[in-house]
Amino acid sequence: MATEGHAPTASEYVIHHLTHLNNTGHAQENIVDWSVINIDSMFYSIVIGALTVFLLWKAASKATSGVPGRFQGIVELLVEMVADQAKGIVHSAESRKFVAPLALTVFVWIFLMNAMDLLPVDLLPRIWEGVYAAGGGDPAHAYMRVVATADLSATLGMSTGVLLLCLYYNIKIKGVGGWVHELFTAPFGNHPLLYPINFAMQIIEFVAKTVSHGMRLFGNMYAGELIFILIALLGSTATVFGFFGHVIAGSIWAIFHILIITLQAFIFMMLTLVYVGQAHESH
Amino acid sequence: MENVLGFVALAAGLIIGLGAIGACIGIGIMGSKYLEASARQPELMNALQTKMFLLAGLIDAAFLIGVGIAMMFAFANPFQL
Predict the structure, then answer these.
(1) Residue A193 in contact with partner chain B when CB distance is under 8 A
(2) Which domains does chain B have, with CATH numbers?
(3) Could you read off the pLDDT tens digit of each residue along chain B, which spans 81 residues?
(4) How many other CB atoms are found less than 10 A from the CB of residue B49?
(5) Are the CB atoms for A283 and A183 separated by under 8 Å?
(6) Residue of chain B whose Cα is closest to the Cα of A271
(7) Using the beta-carbon criterion (under 8 Å), do A223 and B67 form an inter-chain contact?
(8) Whether B65 and A264 lie within 8 Å, measured CB to CB
(9) CA-nearest residue of chain B to A223?
(10) Could you tell me which chain B residue has the CA closest to the CA of A30?
């Protein structure tokens, strides 16, 4: 790693910014490792989740039927947008009472977590290095990744949550017997010879939906964050070209990234609604 | 060791390049169809727009998952011996 003597090389800088602050102190070796907990992702997702719930609660508590303020205006806009989408997809009003607020929370939560990507790359990690060094640690090992949705374990965790919700609604709407019957007869019809194929198709469908749902958000945010890091490398060359390149390329990518952030949060919300809606219709 | 890194770099480039071909063609076709439809029926423009953005995200999904994995190969290289 970067010893005190010289500044980090380009790849050390990138790898340093890609390493999570986890309970093992170094990067995660193998792909699946249940013992590793990414403390920074947990911290940022929980804090931003609490902020989301607080914002929506404050808007709801201060809602007046009179002239709405800007804050209430934007929350109303969001609620109407999510309600319209939910009405179009989830047809049972009774389960919509739970699913629409869930979709709204998911949208605002993921949007705010994604928006952390717009902060300068070194802002929070450098503050954390100071705190870490003050606490007696070696600053070169003070890792921090600010964007929780650029962490595969976080996004797959969210999509697994959506999967569990779908299983719950499948059982609630169709009953365990109805759902198990559907599992074995769904795509190709009710013939004993087709049972294994039907069951395999259903399992593949559930797994594919969950993995693509989580990986899509991860892929977009990870690529976006990495491009911000690479642009920051441009600035670290401390040349006039490098500095202006960093400022121009960084602002262009940040402006485009605002669209990606909103779009990915919208897509995650829409797919949550679509998957729960699918759990209602029988095949 | 150099061979591994060389092939990893090639793999990352191929993943991103081929993924980009698919995503761009898909969005190009969808965009042209969307413009055609909104030209033919302007009142449907808004409804189609939200669906177009949703589909644009879905089309980009495979490409950006590939880009995510290719960049993971490039920087946090799991193939180092």
Answers:
(1) no
(2) 19-80 (1.20.20.10)
(3) 778 888 899 999 999 999 999 999 999 999 999 999 999 999 998 888 888 888 888 888 888 888 888 887 887 777 776
(4) 12
(5) no
(6) B54
(7) yes
(8) no
(9) B68
(10) B78
R_g (Cα) of chain B, nearest Å? 18
ipTM of the shown complex = 0.73
Distance from CA of B58 to the nearest CA of A (A): 8
Q: Which residues of B touch A14 (CB under 8 A)?
A: 75
- Provide φ and ψ at A5, rounded to 5°: -65, -50
Q: Does B35 touch chain A (CB under 8 A)?
A: no
Q: What is the pLDDT of residues A206-220, one digit of tens each?
A: 998 898 899 889 988
What is the SS3 string spanning chain A? Answer: CCCCCCCCCHHHHHHHHHCCCECCCCCCCCCCCCCCCEHHHHHHHHHHHHHHHHHHHHHHHCCCCCCCCHHHHHHHHHHHHHHHHHHHHCCCHHHHHHHHHHHHHHHHHHHHHHHHHHCCCCHHHHHHHHHHHHCCCCHHHCCCCCCHHHCHHHHHHHHHHHHHHHHHHHHHHHHHHHHHHHHHHCCCCCCHHHHHHHHHHHHHHHHHHHHHHHHHHHHHHHHHHHHHHHHHHHHCCCCHHHHHHHHHHHHHHHHHHHHHHHHHHHHHHHHHHHHHHHHHCCC
Between CA A236 and CA A120 the distance in angstroms is 13
Is B81 touching A (CB cutoff 8 A)? no
Is A159 annotated as catalytic?
A: no
Active-site amino acid positions of B:
60
3 state SS of B29:
helix
| CB-nearest partner of A267 from B54, B65, B68 | B54
